């Protein structure tokens, strides 16, 4: 039986997911890769083989995710690393985005991740090993104007991973949240981003923020191939971190947020401490 690692990667037809799967296959790893469209996977990565299993999956549909995970286990004989990479950007103020648009973002970015974890865990527990890597965003730690719902979905993924790491440690399973900054993919293209269908004139700062981010498309500082290599290295570490930021911009934004948070903690410490019961 082959001992090469078995990876399960969602959102593999483009961007960071595609770069990761290409890198894994070049290393001789076995990979199950998912996308909403099977044709896009096969066109880019080729048909199913002994080392590669393309899967069309609706991540928001729990039964569909279970089918995909079971298919991967049946094809390869197990799972070693699960990467929840699928997701998309959604911009707009809370007031501008409809209930349906907001819930759709949570369905893919959050519940899709949860669905995969739910169905992968029994296999990882049975093996007594494994690594779950959830791709979040620096927006989870340091949000930007006009991206409240996106930031909220990624914050959910980050905190989910932090607690998941505690819940599964006793089974020999590790969990890491990867929080990238800007990488040169199509993430910021006008065709990829979900923006308000009926923007409100009152939100001038939101419009300006969206314009700045759209102008960054194709100019992001991060190299997807290097991010893929970093994720593979992460999975090889005997004691991987629970958090991994990718990109100098992510580090800078995180540090700025930490500094601001520390200032607020200090400034409002008195009011925070005033809410306890009196000693006498």
UniProtKB/TrEMBL annotation:
What the entry lists under InterPro entries is as follows: NAD(P)-bd_dom_sf, Sc_DH/Rdtase_CS, SDR_fam, SDR_oxidoreductase
Source organism's superkingdom? Answer: Bacteria
- Its recorded name reads SDR family NAD(P)-dependent oxidoreductase
Q: Which Gene3D superfamilies match?
A: NAD(P)-binding Rossmann-like Domain
Question: What Gene Ontology molecular function terms does this protein carry?
Answer: oxidoreductase activity
Organism for this UniProt entry = Hymenobacter gummosus
Coiled-coil spans in chain: 244-271
Q: Which keywords accompany this UniProt record?
A: Coiled coil, Oxidoreductase
């Amino acid at each position: 039986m082959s001992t090469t690692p078995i990876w399960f990667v969602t959102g593999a037809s483009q961007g960071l997911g595609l770069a990761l799967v290409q890198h894994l296959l070049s290393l001789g790893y076995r990979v199950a890769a998912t996308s909403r469209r099977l044709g896009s996977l096969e066109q880019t990565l080729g048909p199913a083989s002994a080392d590669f299993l393309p899967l069309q999956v609706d991540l928001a549909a729990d039964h569909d995710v279970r089918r995909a995970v079971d298919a991967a286990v049946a094809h390869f004989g197990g799972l070693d690393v699960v990467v929840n990479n699928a997701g998309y950007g959604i911009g707009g103020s809370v007031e501008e985005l409809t209930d349906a648009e907001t819930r759709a973002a949570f369905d893919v970015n959050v519940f899709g991740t949860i669905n995969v974890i739910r169905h992968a865990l029994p296999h990882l527990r049975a093996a007594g090993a494994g690594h779950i890597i959830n791709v979040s965003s620096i927006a989870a730690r340091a949000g930007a104007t006009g991206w409240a719902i996106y930031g909220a979905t990624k914050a959910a993924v980050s905190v989910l991973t932090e607690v998941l790491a505690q819940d599964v440690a006793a089974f020999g399973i590790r969990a890491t949240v990867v929080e990238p900054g800007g990488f040169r993919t199509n993430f910021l293209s006008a065709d990829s981003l979900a923006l308000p269908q009926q923007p409100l004139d009152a939100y001038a700062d939101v419009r300006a923020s969206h314009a700045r981010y759209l102008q960054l498309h194709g100019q992001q500082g991060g190299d997807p191939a290097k991010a893929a290599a970093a994720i593979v290295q992460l999975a090889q570490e005997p004691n991987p971190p629970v958090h991994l930021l990718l990109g100098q911009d992510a580090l800078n934004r995180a540090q700025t947020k930490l500094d601001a948070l520390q200032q607020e903690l200090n400034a409002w410490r008195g009011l925070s401490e005033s809410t306890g019961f009196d000693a006498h």
